[in-house]
Amino acid sequence: MLGYSISRLLQAIPILFLVSLMAFGIIYLIPGDAATVIGGPSASAQDLAQIRANLGLDQPLHVQIWTFYANLLQGDLGRSLLLGIPVTEAVIQRSPVTIGIAIYSLVLTIALGLSTGIIAALNHNRWLDQAATIFALIGVSLPNFWLALVMIVLFSVNLGWLPTGGYVPFSQDPIGWLRTATMPAVSLALLQAGLLTRITRSTMLEVLSQDYIRTARSKGISEWKVVGKHALANVMMPVVTVLGLILSVLLSGSIVIETIFGVPGIGSLLGNAISSRDYPMIQGGLLFVTAALLLLNIVVDVLYTWLDPRIRVGGGK
Questions:
Q1: Is the Cα dihedral 204, 210, 214, 216 positive or negative?
Q2: How many whole angstroms separate alpha carbon 213 and alpha carbon 209?
Q3: Rounded to an integer, what is the distance from CA 19 to the centroid of its chain?
Q4: Residues 12, 246, 154, CA angle at the centre, nearest 5°?
Q5: Other CB atoms closer than 10 Å to residue 219's CB: what's the count?
Q6: Which of 144, 241, 146 is nearest to 191 (CA)?
Q7: Sequence-distant contacts of 124-130: CB under 8 A, at least 24 apart
Q8: Number of neighbouring beta carbons within 10 Å of residue 6
Q9: For 241, how many CA atoms within 13 A lie in the half-sphere containing its CB?
Q10: I need a labelling partner for 217 at 20 to 30 A (CA). Which of 12, 132, 159, 297 fits?
Q11: 175-188 CB burial, b ≥16 within 10 A, e <16
Q12: C-beta separation of 266 from 285 below 8 A
C-alpha cells in the first residue's frame, strides 16, 4: 500500500509540471501586450512599465522561467495585483470556505445518491424506481448555475427562508453558516446526486442478481441484512471510484456558484481574478486547484485498493 501511494505521488509530478508550464504561459497566450490588457487604454507609459516590472515581463524569458520555478519551489505563487497580498496567503484564507461547502455538498450528494439509488434498485420497475430515475435524469440535466438562480428566486425572494447570498463562518454562527451554505451546496450537489443515483441503482441491481445474494436469502436472512451487510459492501466499490470525479466537479463548479451567491471562497477568488485580469492570482489558483484535485484522486485510488484486497497493483502488494 505504501509503495502504491508513493508511486501515485510520483506519477502526479509530471502532471503538476505540465500544469505549471500552462500557468506560466497564460500571460503569453493573451493577444497583444499583457501589461496593456491589464492597465487598459488609459494607462500611461509609466503605469505599463510598472505592471511589466510587477509581473517580471521586463526580464528575458529564461530568467522569467527560472524565477517562476524558483519561487514555486519555495511556495511563492506571486502577489495578487487586485488584492495586493501574496497569492498563497489569499488562497489559504479562502480555502476553509470552499472546503466547507464542498464537504457539505459531498455529504448531500452521497446521502441523496446512495439512498435514492438503493431504493430504486429494491423497487425495480415500480413507481419508486421510476421516480428515482426521473430524479436522476433531472439532476444530470440541470445546469448548476440555473438551479442556483431558481433557488434564489424561490427560497430567498419569494419565500424569504434563506439569504440571497453572503457567507457566515461556521465558527462564528453554525446556524448562520447552514443558512448561507445550503443553497450553494445543494446547487452543486444535485447534479452529482443524479449521477450517483444512476451508478448506485445499476450496481445494486447487478449485485442483487448474484448467486451469493440468492443463497443469503434462501437461508432466511432478512432483506435489510442482505442488502446492508452483503450487497452494500460491493456497491460501495464503484461509488468510491467515482467520488474523486465528484469532488473534482464540485471544486470546479464552485467558481460559478460562489460568484452567484457571493461566497468568499477560492471559486469567487478565481472568478474575480479572471474578470480583473489578475494573472498572478489566476496562475497560483490554477496550480493550487490542480494540486488539490490530484491529491484527492490519489486518496480515492489508495482508498479503493484498501477496500478491495483483490486488487493487485505494482508496488501495492
A1: negative
A2: 7
A3: 17
A4: 145
A5: 8
A6: 144
A7: 124/205, 129/201
A8: 12
A9: 10
A10: 132
A11: eebeebbbbbbbbb
A12: yes
Alpha helices in the chain (DSSP H): 2-29, 34-39, 45-55, 61-73, 87-122, 127-141, 144-151, 174-208, 211-218, 223-225, 232-261, 266-276, 279-307
Three-state secondary structure call for residue 222: coil
For domain 96-275, the CATH class is mainly alpha
Q: 58: buried, middle or exposed (CB in 10 Å: 19+, 13-18, 0-12)?
A: middle
Indicate yes or no: pTM above 0.70: yes
Question: Coil, helix or strand for 231?
Answer: helix
Residue 82's contacts (CB-CB under 8 Å, 6 or more residues apart) are 272, 273, 276, 278, 281
Q: Are 82 and 276 in contact (CB under 8 A)?
A: yes
* Residues in Cβ contact with 191 at an 8 Å cutoff, skipping those fewer than 6 apart: 139, 140, 142, 144, 249, 253
pLDDT by 10-residue block (mean), the chain, 317 residues = 70 80 73 67 78 76 81 80 83 87 89 87 85 83 84 88 86 89 88 85 81 75 71 74 77 81 85 79 83 79 67 47
* Cβ atoms 260, 145 nearer than 8 A: yes
> What pLDDT, on a 0 to 100 scale, did the predictor assign at position 317?
43
Task: Say which residue the cell 424561490 belongs to.
Answer: 154
Place of cell 521586463: 58
DSSP secondary-structure letter at 56? T
> Which pLDDT does position 308 carry in this prediction?
62
Report residue 155 as a C-alpha cell: 427560497
Closest CA relative to residue 293, chosen from 265, 251, 258:
251
Q: Which residue type, as a one-letter code, is found at position 309?
A: P
Specify the amino acid at residue 98: T
* Placement of cell 471562497 in the chain: 265
Q: Residue 164 carries which DSSP code?
A: S
Beta-carbon contacts of 188 under 8 Å, excluding residues fewer than 6 positions away, are 101, 102, 105, 144, 250, 253, 254, 257
